[in-house]
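tool_log.txt
---
The assistant was asked to compare two proteins side by side. It first ran the structure predictor on the initial sequence, then on the second. Raw inputs and outputs are pasted verbatim so the downstream comparison step can read them without reformatting.
(1)
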Amino acid sequence: MIAREAFIHDLESKGSSDHISSGMELVCAYAGARCYLLARTDLYSDRHHDFIVTSNWPFDLVRSFGAALVDAQARISQIRRCLQAFEPSFQDIEHSVNLSESFSQRVCLIPYNAGQARMVLALLFDKDASLSHDRLRDVALAAAYHSSHFPDVISSNDTLSDLTDREVECLSWIGEGKTSDEIALIIGISRNTVNNYITSIMNKTGAKTRSEAVAFAVRQRII
C-alpha cells in the first residue's frame, strides 16, 4: 500500500491535472481497492445528467448495479447524509450480478460533500483484502479535497436555472408555509395550476418533498 505522506504529496500534484480520474485512481490505490466508482447522488433523480463522474468498474457492473446503488444513496434523508458523511459503510452486491470471483461481494460506500455537490465513492476490493477504517476515513477526506479542484464536477445542478419565474414564486410562497390553496389565492391562479408548478419544481430539483425543494433552493440561493 502507498504510504500516507507519499499519498498526500502525490494527490496534491493531481489537483492541476486535466481530469478528476487521475486523482481518484490514486485514492483507489491508497485504499487498497481494485476499482472505484464516483457518482453525484444529487443528480441521480434527473436522468438528463450523467450522475456517474468517473469509474473504472467493470462495465457490466456499472450497468446492472451502479444506478441502483446511487439511487439508494440519493434516497437517504438530509439529516442522515450529514451524520454519515465521510463514514464508510458496506453493501452486499446482489448474487445476480456477474462479478469476478476474485472480488469481494461487498462494495464499500464512502459518502462526502464537495462544495454543494453530494458525492459517493464506491470501492471494490479483492476478496481477501484487509481494510483499515482509519485509512478509509483518509480516503473520504482526500476524495473531497481532490474533487474540490474540479468546479465543473461539483457545480450546482444546472436544472435549477430552468425554473420559471412563476415556479420560483410558488417555491418562495411554499417557503413561507403557504398551502396550494393559499398560493393560488395570492397569485390569482387555480389550485391545480399551482400543483402543476410544484410537480415541475420537484422534477427539476430532484426533491421528494416540498420542504426538501425549499431547502435545496435556499442552499442554491434561488430564494
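(2)
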Amino acid sequence: MSGNQPAPAPAATPAERLHSLLVAAGSLSLRTPGHRAELIGRHRLASGRLIVELPPASCLARHLRQSGELAALVEATDLAPVPIRDRIRARATLTGWLTVAEGAADAELPAVLEPATVELVTADTTIPIDPAEFAAARPDPLADSEADLLCHLNDHHPETLARLSRLVPPRRLHGVRQVRPLALDRFGIVLRLEHPGHDSDVRLRFPVPLRSADQLVEAIEAMLHGSHAAAASDDGDRPGGRVG
C-alpha cells in the first residue's frame, strides 16, 4: 500500500449499526411458531441482549411460560425520520431462542432473545453479524436522539442545510432539487441529494468522533467555518433506494 494513500474513514461496525437501529426503533416484529406480535415501545437492550416486554395475558406470553423456550424471529426497520422518498435506511433480522427473563414480574413478562443469527440489511448488501460481536457492541451515542436532531435541522434550520450542501463536491450537486438530512452518527452526517429521477447520498465527516449529542453544534460549526476540511464520501446513487 502506498504511503500516500489516505487512511480509511472511520465508521461504525455492522454490530454497532444494528445496536443503534434497535435503540432508535420504536417498534419491532416478533414471530414464534403460531404467533406474531407487533411490539410498540416494548423492547430494550441490556448487557448486549435484546429484551422484549410481553403483556402477561397475551397468547404468546402464555405459550412461552408453558414451553420455557421458543424459536423466534425478530425484525426491525430503520426509517429516516424526515419526509423523503424511500425512507427505509436498513433492516435488522435476528433469529434465536426466546426465554423468560429471570425474576419476571406479573405486571409484564420480560423475555430475552438469545440470538443464533443476526443480519443487517442495507440498500447495498446483507451483512451477517456474529452473535458474540452483537452482544459486545454498543449503540452510537447519538442513536436515541438522532431522529429529533435530524427533524429539527430539517424543519428549523434550512440555512444550515444550505451551508452544509456547499461542502459537497459541485459535480455531485448538478441537477439536485433538494438536500435533506438523512442520517447522523458520531462520525458525521449523511445528506440525501434528491434528483428528479433518483437520489444519492453523501457523508460529511466530523473533525473527530462525537462523544455525545451536546457536541453536535460545535462540530457542524467547525465544518462550516473551515476549521475542519470536511471530507465527503460517496454513499452511492440510489435509483430506488429500497431495502429488502
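---
observation on (2): The first strand starts at residue 27 and ends at 32. The chain has six helices and twelve strands.
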